[in-house]
Amino acid sequence: xxxxxxxxxxxxxxxxxxxxxxxxxxxxxxxxxxxTEWRPPAGGNKKIQALLARVEDxxxxxxxxxxxx
Amino acid sequence: xxxxxxxxxxxxxxxxxxxxxxxKGIDTAIDVVPGMKKNLILHAGPPITWEKMSGPLKxxxxxxxxxxxxxxxxxxxxxxxxxxxxxxxxxxxxDGVGPMAGVxxxxxxxxxxxxxxxxxxxxxxxxxxxxxxxxxxxxxxxVITRLKWIEKTLAPxxxxxxxxxxxxxLKNMIAQALQMGDEVHNRNKAATSMLIRELVAAITKTPFSxxxxxxxxxxxxxxxxxxxxxxMPAAKVMLQAAxxxxxxxxxxxxxxxxxxFGIRVAGLKDRWFTGPAQMTKGLLFPGFExxxxxPDIGDSAITETCGLGGFSMAAAPAIVKFxxxxxxxxxxxxxxxxxxxxxxxxxxxxxxxxxxxxxxxINLLKVCEKNILPQINTGIxxxxxxxxxxxAGLVNPPxxxxxxxxxxxxxxxxxx
Lengths: 69, 416
Prior knowledge:
The complex is a heterodimer.
Chain A: H1 2-9, E1 13-17, H2 20-28, E2 32-36, H3 46-68
Parallel strand pairs in A: 1-2
Chain B: H1 5-18, E1 21-28, H2 29-32, E2 40-43, H3 55-67, H4 74-82, E3 87-90, E4 109-115, E5 121-125, H5 141-161, H6 170-179, H7 189-205, H8 210-221, H9 228-240, E6 251-257, E7 260-265, E8 273-276, E9 281-284, E10 297-298, H10 302-305, H11 320-323, H12 327-337, E11 341-350, E12 356-362, H13 364-370, E13 376-381, E14 389-395, H14 399-413
Parallel strand pairs in B: 2-3
Antiparallel strand pairs in B: 1-4, 4-5, 6-7, 6-10, 7-8, 9-14, 11-12, 13-14
Helix pairs in contact in B: 3-4, 3-5, 5-7, 5-8, 6-7, 7-8, 13-14
């Protein structure tokens, strides 16, 4: 709790993810902010996310096996 | 399977970087193109049947059959094209590329480009110029007459000149052209000028008449896109070096036939992944509207696949006057492409980005994960056969190609 109250006592610097206008609004109010262009992996497509996860799992196994040799 | 994707992709990228495309010569398609025969028509893009071809591709097929002497007129050509006696095959399956409709027949002369590093060759027809041309689906008498002149005069003069000129390394020429404001897809002004400079003395030394030599030089000079039919096979031969490296997720082909867009991936040998060809957004010539436009067509996206064209638009700010958008758009397109590529070209540098190498080696996994599509700039063909080019603009592939390729990749490699 004490950490939270000290946070609000400080100057806030914002990294904005998502909608760029949120960062613009803060800037207009004098709040230091930068916008980061972030999107959910695979644009939120669950099927593609699952396929990518399978590739990642396979590669983790490959790396582990190679490390064991 | 014990394959490290990073290692496989590093190997693919190294092979692309090591390629040294040179102009080997010019010859007749049937004599040099693998699998070429009299009743075969090569075309741009993934495989397609006559029934599914769009207007400009059908028009180019009609023109090709008349040029080849297999049909006397368009009606006869159309009948023959649908008869089953004519075979159709993608240029990409015959070690070549074709701009727009990309139609090539047995008697057409083709550039031969060789990768000196591994000896592999690629092929492409000679650029016909702008306006009513076969590659945009036009087949009138003037189109056939020009094609015959290319066969009987242009190609023989250049074929004789090439051995008399210093060896032309296309990679070096493209690298220089990028320093001079080209991206060698829709802007080839500097590269065409350099090509003429390299060949002019040799052309004058050939045993052809003064009139023929002057006409050849005038023809090349009048066509800023003359070099496109060399930048394309140069890009193709560089990417061939990455075929078919087991486990690699580097995209080695992107192309369109006017109906479908197709890609191929280094680790998925010979397999096509297709989706509907998209409509190009851009600047149309006076008198044309969006409803006149054909969907995306041509093998010229091989330049983007190799980190040129839309991927190097930051090197060619003047191109926005041709394809639309602003100079900052051009810079941003290039910046964005670094997010989906495996590395940066050692040869192709972009002055406006502090000589950073162009984004090279499209990684299928990055395209899918970041949901960012490759950026292509391209010419726009009229949807009807025989009309020609109506503009130029910007387009992306359909995401479906990449999603299907990812699914196939997982099926092949991740079955443990």
